Every structure is written in structure tokens, then in C-alpha cells.
Amino acid sequence: MARITASVYTSHVPAIGAALDLGKTQEPYWQPVFQGYEFGKQWMKDNKPDVVFLVYNDHATAFSLEMIPTFAIGTAAEFQPADEGWGPRPVPKVIGHPDLASHIAQSVIQQDFDLTIVNKMDVDHGLTVPLSLMCGQPEAWPCPVIPFAVNVVQYPVPSGRRCYNLGQAIRKAVESFDEDLNVHIWGTGGMSHQLQGPRAGLINKDFDNAFLDKLINDPEAAASIPHIDYVREAGSEGIELVMWLIARGAMADVAGGAKPKVAQRFYHVPASNTAVGHLILENS
Ligand code: DHB
Ligand code: FE
């Protein structure tokens, strides 16, 4: 049977990808950001998963105002890095896991979450920057990745509670897959940031750190945060944080198991316009 053994949480920022691709990681501005991921890169090598289920958001790259799936699962054999205006990032293509992805689609849809099934999609910085932060610059990503895109760009967006419940359904789906697979689930995006309007540049360290505390120790309370609080407290793009609740909902303690171990916690401001947060939680 397949098992979710750990969850990883990290912000994404396109400028982080550019800093890495252009060899700027040791510049004073970027060095502390990348330093915060040294532990995670080693941890990935020491705890190599068979598959990463990567929850992220597309930024009007694969989708647009023409088509807005709330939850979309990538079932293809591979996914190309997207061209977001400067050419595709020079990173490996993403190899999918069609068998596990189709099984999760079947199981989660039968648990009453209506997923969109995507057989062709390019993946933008929302997916490739977290992979770069956790894996560095390899020739190929260390394992297959199932992209799971959440609409947090065009209103209406799903609530944190819905995301948390969906995470629980994903855990059940993974555990009903016959093959022995070690699966990690990643929740990405956030933390506080606002890219537009009079409050552009907003960062809220108190909210972010309280969110990290809640996510670790009281995920029910984190799942209860209403949509408007994210927008007020963490800025219009801070709503990306609801994706972290999908990964957290898939952890064992939510289903009555033991509390996860906190292997890594990191927080840094600034990276571009965003507060960078990063956690690694391990199931025991
Ligand atoms: C930035 C952050 C994002 O989440 C994003 O999608 C684009 C830009 C930024 O901080 O610049
Ligand atoms: Fe974003």
C-alpha cells in the first residue's frame, strides 16, 4: 500500500527561480533565502520519496479566464516547464505518475470532491520553484511528481476548510493504492504578500508565524481561518496559503494518528514581494 510519510510546505516566488537560474544564490540578498533550504535539500536526499504530490497554483499560465478549474489533477506522463514570458526555466521536465494520479482522481471524486482531470498542461513557477528550492539544480528531478493545481487566482476560490477536507480524502486515496510507494505531499505558495493596489508590498510577520504555529499544532484551527482573514491579514496573494491546508489535512494525526515531527521550520523576509515560509513535517 502507498503511504504519505511527510509533508513539505514552501513559498514560491518567480524571482527565486530567476536567482537560481542566473547564478545569484550567493548574493547577499538571496543567500539567506537559499540557506534556509540547505536542510531541506539534504533531507530530500536522505528521505527520497517515490512520488511527490505537489499542490500548487497556476498563475494564468496553463489556465486563464477562459477556463478556471478549482482543483485540477495532472494525470499525464510528463509536464513541460512553462514559458511565463522569458522562455521556459532551464529546469528538467516533470515526470508524472499516471497510475497513482488516476487512482487518486477516481478515489477522491468518489469521495465527493469534483476534480478536473488534466492530461496536458505546462507547469509554471508555482510548481518549478518549490522543486528547485528542495532539489537544487539536478539533471532530472529525483522522482515523479503529480501536479495538483488549485485556483487561488480568480474568485471564487476554495475555503481553507474545503482544502483541509480534500487533504484527508487524498490521504485515503493514497492509502488505497496497491503498490508500496513512499509519497510526500507538498503545500506551496504564500506566505503573506500582496502584488497589487494600494497595499502592494504588504507583509505580516505576526500572521505568518501564528499560521505556522497553528498549522503545526492545531490544524483544525488553521482550517477554520475564514477567507477574509487571509486577504485582510496576509494580503490578496496571501490566500495562496489555503493550499498548505491540503498537505496538512493529509497527515496522519488528522485521521487519529500521532502528531507529526517538525523536521524543519524557516521564515525569512523579504524575497521579492513575499514572506518566505518553509516547513517539513514527518509522520512517525
Ligand atoms: C511574487 C510572488 C508570487 O506568489 C507570485 O506568484 C508572483 C510574484 C513576488 O513576490 O514577486
Ligand atoms: Fe504566486
Automatic annotation (TrEMBL):
Pfam families: LigB
UniProt xrefs under InterPro entries: PCA_45_Dioxygenase_B, Xdiol_dOase_suB
Highest taxon in the source lineage: Bacteria
Database matches in SUPFAM superfamilies: LigB-like (SSF53213)
Domain Extradiol ring-cleavage dioxygenase class III enzyme subunit B: 8-276
Listed name of the protein: Extradiol ring-cleavage dioxygenase class III enzyme subunit B domain-containing protein
Taxonomy of the source species: Bacteria, Pseudomonadati, Pseudomonadota, Betaproteobacteria, Burkholderiales
